[in-house]
Amino acid sequence: MKLTPFHTILKDRTSILVREVTHEDRHLLEIGFAHLSDQSKYFRFLGHRKNLTSPELTKFTAVNGPDHVAVGAMVVGEPSPEPVAIARYFRLPDESHVAEIAITVVDSYQRQGLGSLLIGVLAKFADMEGITTFSALVHGENTTMLGLLRQLGGTRASMDGMEMNIRIPISGNTEGRSLSTVDDPFKDARRLASFQ
């Protein structure tokens, strides 16, 4: 199953394209990484980073399948490619119903709804693959990401030093009650994302 690429408008009226990441996107990941602040790099990788390694680029652009999915967003209408966000999940081998997620949004596009949209697209993939929960490892000082994950229904599962493990239910059921379309945190992604 493949995501049909789709366009949408951010809160600041920027037009973006959302699509699956492919093995040909290595250079786009490098461009996006170069536009991250040192703090964003630190929060994403839980340590200081100057660049992405070749093995990381290979892993991050692997072909999507039942255990791994990556989607990204690019600004539409720019003369050169402008990648602004990427999100991915990897199914946990010891908990087949759980997938670890990672989200990166370029600093100048944060707080525009991109993170929740891309996590929602991942959730739509995950629903079809029997994954019911996302797990995210987040630095305790990354208040923006912690706030986003809480908005999506995330709760702290554990803490190790400054790293928190947040669990997010992605099925339409939280604490035994069905979500309406009004309180579904993934409603925009469910409306926009379709598959071929």
From TrEMBL:
A Gene Ontology molecular function term of the record: acyltransferase activity, transferring groups other than amino-acyl groups
Q: Which InterPro entries match?
A: Acyl_CoA_acyltransferase, GNAT_dom
Which SUPFAM superfamilies does the UniProt record give? Acyl-CoA N-acyltransferases (Nat) (SSF55729)
**Which Pfam families does the entry link to?**
Acetyltransf_1
- A GO CC term attached to the entry: ribosome
NADP listed as a keyword:
no
Report the PROSITE patterns cross-referenced here.
GNAT
Using the record for this protein, list the coiled-coil segments as residue ranges, or answer none. Answer: none
What keywords would UniProt list here? Ribonucleoprotein, Ribosomal protein
Q: Domain (N-acetyltransferase): give its ranges.
A: 16-169
Write down what this protein is called. Answer: Ribosomal protein S18 acetylase RimI
